[in-house]
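Practice problem: Riboflavin biosynthesis protein RibD
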Amino acid sequence: MHKKFLLAALEQARIGQGHCAPNPCVGAVAVQNGTIIAQASHRCAGTPHAEQLLLTQIPPKMPGVSLYISLEPCNHWGRTPPCVDAIINHGVEEVVFAYLDPNPVVAKNNSSEKLRAHGIKVTHYPVDEITEFYKSYSYWTVTKRPRVTVKIAQTLNGKIGRSVGERVILSNTLCEEFTHQMRAAADVILTTAKTVSLDNPKMNVRLGQEKQAKPVAIIDRQLSLDQQSIIFSTAAHCHVYHCNEREVSYPNSTLHFMPMKNGVMDLDAVISHLGGLGYHDVWVEAGGTLFSALHQERLVHRTYLYIVPSILEHDAISAYQQSGIFDRTHTISWHAMGDNMIACLDWQED
Ligand SMILES: NC(=O)c1ccc[n+]([C@@H]2O[C@H](COP(=O)([O-])OP(=O)(O)OC[C@H]3O[C@@H](n4cnc5c(N)ncnc54)[C@H](OP(=O)(O)O)[C@@H]3O)[C@@H](O)[C@H]2O)c1
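Answer key — structure tokens:
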């Protein structure tokens, strides 16, 4: 029963995915007599936590109510009051949570002990799906760096786009939909000025009727972006990374000066800066040059290769611009997407 209700809490947590950073996404359900009577999710940093929203839906001191929460409830003041105090004051009888918060402030104050001191039954019940869900939050909390996921669509001969001429759409609609789901779940999308100038992409989320603007980070070493690029109006905000002293402004953007390393922008510094902005999950959509460089520098945690049954001409742009970029321990899984295939490579941490 614990697993069933914690997975229901996870479904609630997923609603906030891509909106809550630097906070974790949290979902919660209230159960009475084996039935879910209320559910809530944390929607955005600075707004009430899932537990607080849940408690507003149940009368105080209601008998036999258990709260199932995806993450250990918080016990400190941030922008909102501690959830542990709200649970105690509401007269809840039982709390079951799945994931121990790695935030040292929460760990120090021991939520379970506080709740138990007020006669509340507390169970920590780990669930694999929820542990996986908090991977990025956990990694960011410990390292202050985001997890990086890179996608590239390639032909059977490893090409990703034509070197000149029109933009080519390689992957099928199932892969496209997957891309939009991944964009939605990420905190920020990373691309390059080269891809922006060649493709003029929107880099927003378009799923059915839903349209959602995301923060977008753009590597633009020389500040060469065209101010008319559509991305400035389709992104929630743009973070433009550059190495140029020139005074330039772009619409809806913040410029960040980055150091150079071996004649190119220091990508490690960019990723670290994105972590400093509070992003836990970076989704990368760019060409083969950035794809190869990120792998070469071992900055990627997960790679999605969309494999498309077509061939582009020999001089088309390659996904693999350096040798040995995949020489690193990894696991791989394959997912059929109609007539395309997605290979998911999870790189082992060094
Ligand atoms: N198939 C797909 O999934 C997919 C996705 C997106 C885009 N594309 C296609 O990709 C093509 C562009 O690919 P591309 O490989 O030419 O360009 P890209 O990877 O998008 O961007 C290349 C730029 O990134 C910067 N860069 C390169 N190496 C770097 C490094 N080590 N460190 C930091 N910055 C570095 C460089 O900027 P500076 O020269 O200013 O240093 C370089 O011009 C487009 O045609 C687009 O359609 C395909």
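Discussion: The chain has a mean pLDDT of 94. Students who identified this feature from the tokens alone can consider the problem solved.
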